[in-house]
Amino acid sequence: MASPLNGARLAAYAGLGALGALVGAAGALVQGGWFPGGLLLALLGIAGLCYGGITATRTRTGGVVPGAGWLLAVLLLTASRSEGDFLFGAGIGSYVFLLGGMAVVVMCATLSKLPQPGGPSVRLGK
User: What are phi and psi of 86, to 5 degrees?
Assistant: First the structure.
Protein backbone atom coordinates (compact mmCIF):
# COMPACT_ATOMS: atom_id res chain seq x y z
CA MET A 1 0.00 0.00 0.00
CA ALA A 2 1.43 3.36 -0.98
CA SER A 3 2.14 5.91 1.71
CA PRO A 4 0.38 9.26 1.40
CA LEU A 5 2.42 12.08 -0.10
CA ASN A 6 2.62 14.93 2.40
CA GLY A 7 4.92 17.85 3.11
CA ALA A 8 7.30 15.88 5.33
CA ARG A 9 7.71 13.15 2.73
CA LEU A 10 8.34 15.72 -0.02
CA ALA A 11 10.96 17.41 2.17
CA ALA A 12 12.60 14.05 2.80
CA TYR A 13 12.71 13.33 -0.94
CA ALA A 14 14.18 16.79 -1.63
CA GLY A 15 16.85 16.22 1.02
CA LEU A 16 17.65 12.79 -0.38
CA GLY A 17 17.97 14.24 -3.88
CA ALA A 18 20.36 16.93 -2.65
CA LEU A 19 22.40 14.34 -0.76
CA GLY A 20 22.51 12.20 -3.90
CA ALA A 21 23.94 15.13 -5.87
CA LEU A 22 26.54 15.76 -3.16
CA VAL A 23 27.55 12.09 -3.05
CA GLY A 24 27.85 12.10 -6.85
CA ALA A 25 30.11 15.16 -6.85
CA ALA A 26 32.23 13.84 -4.00
CA GLY A 27 32.45 10.41 -5.60
CA ALA A 28 33.58 11.95 -8.89
CA LEU A 29 36.48 13.59 -7.09
CA VAL A 30 37.38 10.67 -4.83
CA GLN A 31 37.29 7.89 -7.43
CA GLY A 32 39.99 9.55 -9.51
CA GLY A 33 42.13 10.70 -6.62
CA TRP A 34 42.52 7.39 -4.78
CA PHE A 35 41.92 4.95 -7.60
CA PRO A 36 41.19 1.53 -6.18
CA GLY A 37 40.01 2.55 -2.72
CA GLY A 38 38.34 5.77 -3.81
CA LEU A 39 36.29 3.98 -6.42
CA LEU A 40 35.06 1.49 -3.87
CA LEU A 41 34.34 4.27 -1.40
CA ALA A 42 32.35 6.23 -3.99
CA LEU A 43 30.25 3.20 -4.95
CA LEU A 44 29.65 2.28 -1.31
CA GLY A 45 28.59 5.87 -0.65
CA ILE A 46 25.81 5.84 -3.24
CA ALA A 47 24.75 2.33 -2.23
CA GLY A 48 24.49 3.35 1.41
CA LEU A 49 22.56 6.50 0.57
CA CYS A 50 20.07 4.67 -1.66
CA TYR A 51 19.50 1.89 0.85
CA GLY A 52 19.28 4.42 3.67
CA GLY A 53 16.66 6.34 1.69
CA ILE A 54 14.65 3.15 1.27
CA THR A 55 14.76 2.33 4.97
CA ALA A 56 14.09 5.91 6.07
CA THR A 57 11.04 6.46 3.88
CA ARG A 58 9.95 2.79 3.65
CA THR A 59 9.30 3.27 -0.06
CA ARG A 60 11.24 2.38 -3.18
CA THR A 61 11.02 6.02 -4.19
CA GLY A 62 13.35 6.75 -1.29
CA GLY A 63 16.04 4.81 -3.16
CA VAL A 64 15.29 6.24 -6.59
CA VAL A 65 15.41 9.92 -5.62
CA PRO A 66 19.03 9.95 -4.33
CA GLY A 67 20.00 7.90 -7.36
CA ALA A 68 18.44 10.49 -9.65
CA GLY A 69 20.32 13.26 -7.82
CA TRP A 70 23.55 11.26 -8.15
CA LEU A 71 22.97 10.67 -11.86
CA LEU A 72 22.18 14.32 -12.52
CA ALA A 73 25.35 15.49 -10.75
CA VAL A 74 27.55 12.91 -12.46
CA LEU A 75 26.16 13.65 -15.92
CA LEU A 76 26.68 17.38 -15.41
CA LEU A 77 30.26 16.73 -14.32
CA THR A 78 31.03 14.55 -17.36
CA ALA A 79 30.22 17.33 -19.81
CA SER A 80 33.28 19.18 -21.07
CA ARG A 81 33.40 22.92 -20.79
CA SER A 82 34.21 25.42 -23.51
CA GLU A 83 37.75 25.77 -22.11
CA GLY A 84 38.29 22.05 -22.70
CA ASP A 85 38.32 21.14 -19.02
CA PHE A 86 36.55 18.07 -17.72
CA LEU A 87 36.51 16.20 -14.45
CA PHE A 88 36.58 12.57 -15.54
CA GLY A 89 39.64 11.05 -17.14
CA ALA A 90 39.46 8.48 -19.90
CA GLY A 91 40.37 5.51 -17.72
CA ILE A 92 38.74 2.34 -16.54
CA GLY A 93 38.01 3.87 -13.11
CA SER A 94 35.68 6.55 -14.43
CA TYR A 95 33.75 4.05 -16.54
CA VAL A 96 33.41 1.67 -13.60
CA PHE A 97 32.22 4.59 -11.46
CA LEU A 98 29.59 5.65 -13.99
CA LEU A 99 28.28 2.21 -14.89
CA GLY A 100 28.75 0.73 -11.43
CA GLY A 101 26.92 3.63 -9.82
CA MET A 102 24.01 3.25 -12.21
CA ALA A 103 23.91 -0.48 -11.49
CA VAL A 104 23.91 0.15 -7.73
CA VAL A 105 21.03 2.61 -8.04
CA VAL A 106 19.00 0.17 -10.14
CA MET A 107 19.68 -2.65 -7.67
CA CYS A 108 18.57 -0.53 -4.73
CA ALA A 109 15.49 0.70 -6.58
CA THR A 110 14.36 -2.80 -7.47
CA LEU A 111 14.90 -4.60 -4.18
CA SER A 112 12.50 -7.49 -3.92
CA LYS A 113 11.48 -6.77 -0.33
CA LEU A 114 11.44 -3.50 1.53
CA PRO A 115 12.82 -3.60 5.08
CA GLN A 116 10.03 -4.40 7.50
CA PRO A 117 9.59 -2.58 10.79
CA GLY A 118 10.37 -4.52 13.95
CA GLY A 119 7.45 -6.27 15.52
CA PRO A 120 6.45 -9.38 17.36
CA SER A 121 7.68 -12.68 16.07
CA VAL A 122 5.39 -14.45 13.64
CA ARG A 123 6.45 -17.88 14.79
CA LEU A 124 3.89 -19.84 16.73
CA GLY A 125 4.67 -20.51 20.35
CA LYS A 126 6.79 -17.41 20.89
Answer: -150, 160
